[in-house]
Amino acid sequence: MSSIANKKGFGATVWDYMTTVDHKKIGVMYLIAGTFFFVLGGIEAMLMRIQLMKPNNDFVSAGFFNELMTMHGTTMIFLAAMPLLFAFMNAVVPLQIGARDVAFPFLNSLGFWLFFFGGIFLNLSWFLGGAPDAGWTSYASLSLYSEGHGIDFYVLGLQVSGAGTLISGINFLVTIVNMRAPGMTYMRMPLFTWTTFVSSALIVFAFPPLTIGLALMLFDRMFGANFFDHTMGGNTIIWEHLFWIFGHPEVYILVLPAFGLFSEIFATFSRKRLFGYSSMVFATILIGFLGFMVWAHHMFTVGLGATANAIFAVATMLIAVPTGMKVFNWLLTMWGGSIKVTVPMLYALGFIPSFVAGGVTGVMQAAAPLDYQLHDSYFIVAHFHYVIVGGIVLALFGSAHYYWPLMFNQMLSEKLGKVTFWLFFIGFHCTFFVQHFLGLMGMPRRVSTYDAGQGLDLFNMISTVGAVLMAIGVITLVVNVVITAVKNEKVGRDPWGDGRTLEWAIPQPVPFYNFRQTPLVRGLDTYWIEKQEGNEEGMTYAEPLSDIHMPNNSILPFMMTVGLFIASFGALYNMDADKPWSIYLLVGGLGMLFVCMFIRSFKDDHGYHVHVEEILAEEERLYGKKGGND
Amino acid sequence: MDMNKQFTAQTWPDHPEQATLEGKNKFVGFWIFLACEVVLFASLFATYLALKNRGPASMGEEFTTQNLFELPLVFVMTMVLLTSSLTSVYAMYHMKNHNFKGTQTWMGITVILGAVFLALEIYEFNHYVHLGFHYSQSAFSSAFYTLVGTHGAHVLLGLCWISSLIIRNSKRGLNLYNAPKYYVAALYWHFIDVVWVFIFTVVYLMGAM
Amino acid sequence: MMRKFKKWRLVALLATMTVFLTACGEEYLSTLTPAGKVGQEQFNLLLLATAIMALVIIVVCIIYFISFIKFRRSVIGEDVIPKQVEGSHTLEVIWTVIPIILLLILAVPTVMATYELGDTSGMDAVDENGDKRALTVNVTAKLYWWEFEYPDLGIVTSQELVVPTNENVYFNLIAADVKHSFWIPAVGGKMDTNVENLNKFYLEFSEESARLKDGVFYGKCAELCGPSHALMDFKVKTLKREDFNAWVTAMQNTQNRTVAADVQAGEEAFVANGCIACHATDAIATTPDDAYASNALGPNLATFGDRNRVAGVLDHTEEEVVNWLQNSETLKPGNLMPMYDDVPKEELEAIAAYLMSLSVEQE
């Protein structure tokens, strides 16, 4: 019944993960799946950089290059960056707010499986007639023109994984609204929880336009609708608007949690309260709000007219203000602190100059007339990689080191971690810094090759060398993970020594019910407060030890997703006249989905209770004594 | 707390839908879900307005909003759906008073009215298709059927949902486990109704003008 | 004294410029060597934005390094518990207000330039005779080539745009199949060619292209449009106004040109193989002047001999023409021209020689 981890066979472990509704295990699954897709996207990037290493190269064909470029973008955004952030949200947020699980554990599991199978579906296109090739933006005229099923894989795969993201977004919002421990007021929430909160709200408002855009494209390709066919009165600019109304907030969906993670790291390793906490919260909300007002800056050259361009230019520049506030608050957190240069802090220190560079080039592109030159050139490629790699990926790597002890009760090697950082960091700047100049020198983005004698050769070569360094960096990280897992040295609670927030107060390994008693939160950085007051227990409790209510595991989310996965294949091949069997897949898959939904509705699921004596037995097993704190 | 605990009208809480943590989560979560739905429909409305009356160069005046829509029929549909929203309010009223039979009856009437609405919509679509205004006829036809059809699909889903609730709970009466379920179903039904008011205004009334 | 200082400043400036220029790219392609009013304005905006942003980076880096140097744990001691500061309102105000001021400095010229560059009213201005004052070019982007029609002059060309210098040239832009984007980096920013609507903008060309390496500016397609997106280049030839007028007259006289005797066989092969069905060999515009995309199936070849490249990317030689005719699909994947690899090589060579003779510039 309970997920007490006795020694289990491999099959039982797999079954446990397939059915789990425990946010910690779902976090681990997000981490593994996200890393898998990250590596996949990285391989695609390497192939592209090898192709562009020298002029007129024929390492890959032009058509294949477009598939690589499309899948690299799509994979990295939807299947790597978002799930990896979800990994940390799942692993950390419930612990930070003193909750025993998320608000909807069943939906949490469903969200994961939808993302995972959506991603698998999308990537199966490589083996089933070719990947999508119209760019991750998949602009309508080209994507309708594109032959084969590549675009259909894109549409259906993103629809499925997008549904998973939406579910997770709603889940985190409700979790943070309803499940905070007593005393955890909004203005005492750690900044990672805050950014998760705002980013989830952005998901709620940004993903539906994408859902609609994808649906319209699906209808155009599948049912002969005419949304984007201008000969029938359609309009491709509608796709561009819908995509960017989603696409721009998506950037903030990704980067806000990254800000949150860095805020935790800066405070911890400066041994100092986050400077200007309330203005950080305010800036987060403001960025989220403004993020919806600026989508048309991706469309300055579409011909929206001078007035629209001017308005969106100024609105875009405004975002620099709250972002700047954040940067200065981080700097002032370090100022007067006690900075310990651990690997997570190294990533945070690398983040500041990298992200500021990415931010300022963003402001440059906000100047619409200047953007007429920069748009769709390599300058923009450099810009968004500075933001996404310099902001988000550094956050993910840094947090992987930072939260590894929390998730696995082990510490990644600091020595190897530093090697990873320097390889990756130098490689990153080497790859992307010169790309600014390539763009200014007239190299359009998304080109599969370029002619010699245009002055572009040297910088492309440098860029490829940098990419190799980044790849070696990532491999070092993987090696580090493997070595750490094999060594399996347990590190216990608060291994950094400077943990400030509630998640570090829990004894390691974290019991499946998280908190034996619900904690009472007495201020911002509650664990820091307890430590300063010499509380060995690390927490003040809000209730006596009593039975704990926990949700049941369920295989239904997995089965529902498999149903949808099968149905997606049915829908995809239903477009071909010569595949009459596809309708059975479609109906069968949807049938499976509905049967699972029916079971879920008609079979009551009240969860179960962990009784006091079971809690004590579990603590005995985990820590060998009551209470468990080292 | 035992989820299957039996209540009487006296012990029944004032806000049964939010009396448990699960209920509270459902309540907040569903409101957020409706926010998603608002954006979803907003995107569809925007698309519809952009493509209103747009078609191939050869498209005549026959299939424009002015000449196509049959307002009397749509008016009847609107009234039916508005009434069904009212009956679901009655059902919620009875639920708050722990009158399970009343809840079930009024929810049942809501379902019947919803089914009537759906039947009329199917008739309407069928009628247009027979006139030659089919899904692929123009960008306008695609946008029209997609917007109104998405609403119709929501009605259908709502009907299935409420019917299952009625059937599933017919034997066991109200408790704190199923009260939130009834509540969010009614909330969903109101939302569908509000969307229809917008469709009626934006598509039909503004179209006929 | 002052003089000496000025001289030093000049040397320093030159030194910086040399370093800078190595990263400037080629002047026929780079946005950093603007050859026109529009490009210059955008370049000035780039300099302004870069200056402001460099200031921001410097300030951030100074605070960053000082705090890193002064407040490391190895410097201040292992057991120090820093003061847990909440924040500072004064500082918050400072780093809100100063960025806003910096952004205003950038926003004002941005908005002004946006309106200035968006103003295409000059396109319709007419003189006392009712003739258009400014030159207008209708650009149609097609799967991997460009057509340039001069509606007021009744001529059409493709792949190589020819324009006069030192005056505003207005463009009507549209795509015939999928979306493309029209970009001449050295002259000015880009504008998309949408499939459903006409976009308008203008450029100004301040330099004659004859002195450039290939005698032309490079143009690019900037919007992903399929496998051969990277190969959808075009070239721009800029001429003094009187040279341009001469070119126009020559173009207008391309109807019923007689070809030289030595390439007549090529002309016959051109017709016999059906090339003529898609490719016009005179420069007379046939499509009416309307808002829609030109319906030409293949590029106009009336000035083939004057061009700089074959098919936009290959060297301009007869061998490459033959190569193109035999391998068009592999050379430019996804393009719509059939391959003529079953036609005897001599015939293709004859066609190549014929095409090379089509010229309005050679005497």
Automatic annotation (TrEMBL), chain A:
Catalyzed reaction equations: 4 Fe(II)-[cytochrome c] + O2 + 8 H(+)(in) = 4 Fe(III)-[cytochrome c] + 2 H2O + 4 H(+)(out)
Top EC class, one word: translocase
EC number assigned by the record: 7.1.1.9
Signal peptide: none
Main location: membrane
Positions of transmembrane segments: 28-50, 70-93, 105-128, 153-179, 191-219, 242-262, 274-296, 302-325, 346-368, 380-404, 416-438, 458-483, 555-575, 581-599
NCBIfam families: CtaD_CoxA
Function according to Swiss-Prot or TrEMBL: Cytochrome c oxidase is the component of the respiratory chain that catalyzes the reduction of oxygen to water. Subunits 1-3 form the functional core of the enzyme complex. CO I is the catalytic subunit of the enzyme. Electrons originating in cytochrome c are transferred via the copper A center of subunit 2 and heme A of subunit 1 to the bimetallic center formed by heme A3 and copper B.
PANTHER family per record: CYTOCHROME C OXIDASE SUBUNIT 1
Family, per entry: Belongs to the heme-copper respiratory oxidase family.
Record's protein name: Cytochrome c oxidase subunit 1
Organism: Caryophanon latum
Phylogenetic lineage: Bacteria, Bacillati, Bacillota, Bacilli, Bacillales
From TrEMBL, chain B:
GO cellular component, one term: plasma membrane
Residue intervals passing through the bilayer: 28-51, 71-93, 105-123, 143-167, 187-207
Membrane protein topology class: Multi-pass membrane protein
Subcellular location: Cell membrane
Domain Heme-copper oxidase subunit III family profile: 1-208
GO biological processes: aerobic electron transport chain
InterPro entries the record matches: Cyt_c/ubiquinol_Oxase_su3, Cyt_c_oxidase-like_su3, Cyt_c_oxidase_su3-like_sf, Cyt_c_oxidase_su3_a-hlx, Ubiquinol_oxase_su3_dom
Keyword Transmembrane tagged: yes
Alphabetic keyword roster: Cell membrane, Membrane, Transmembrane, Transmembrane helix
Molecular function (Gene Ontology), one example: cytochrome-c oxidase activity
PANTHER family reported for this sequence: CYTOCHROME C OXIDASE SUBUNIT 3 (PTHR11403:SF9), CYTOCHROME C OXIDASE SUBUNIT III (PTHR11403)
Family under the similarity heading: Belongs to the cytochrome c oxidase subunit 3 family.
Protein name: Cytochrome B oxidoreductase
Native source species: Caryophanon latum
Automatic annotation (TrEMBL), chain C:
Main location: membrane
Pfam family, one: Cytochrom_C
GO molecular function list: copper ion binding; cytochrome-c oxidase activity; heme binding; oxidoreductase activity
Keyword Metal-binding: yes
Gene Ontology biological process terms in this record: ATP synthesis coupled electron transport
Enzyme class: translocase
Example of a GO cellular component annotation carried by this entry: plasma membrane
Membrane association type: Multi-pass membrane protein
Domain annotation Cytochrome oxidase subunit II copper A binding: ranges: 132-250
PROSITE patterns named in the record: COX2, COX2_CUA, COX2_TM, CYTC, PROKAR_LIPOPROTEIN
Cell compartment(s), UniProt: Cell membrane; Membrane
Catalysis: reaction(s): 4 Fe(II)-[cytochrome c] + O2 + 8 H(+)(in) = 4 Fe(III)-[cytochrome c] + 2 H2O + 4 H(+)(out)
Every Cytochrome oxidase subunit II transmembrane region profile domain range: 23-121
InterPro entries: CcO_II, CcO_II-like_C, Copper_CuA, Cupredoxin, Cyt_c-like_dom, Cyt_c-like_dom_sf, Cyt_c_oxidase_su2, Cyt_c_oxidase_su2_TM_dom
EC code(s) of this entry: 7.1.1.9
Swiss-Prot/TrEMBL cofactor(s): Cu cation
Cytochrome c domain boundaries: 261-359
NCBIfam families, per the entry: CoxB (TIGR02866)
Family: Belongs to the cytochrome c oxidase subunit 2 family.
PANTHER family attached to this UniProt entry: CYTOCHROME C OXIDASE SUBUNIT 2, CYTOCHROME C OXIDASE, SUBUNIT II
Name of this protein: Cytochrome c oxidase subunit 2
Species this chain originates from: Caryophanon latum
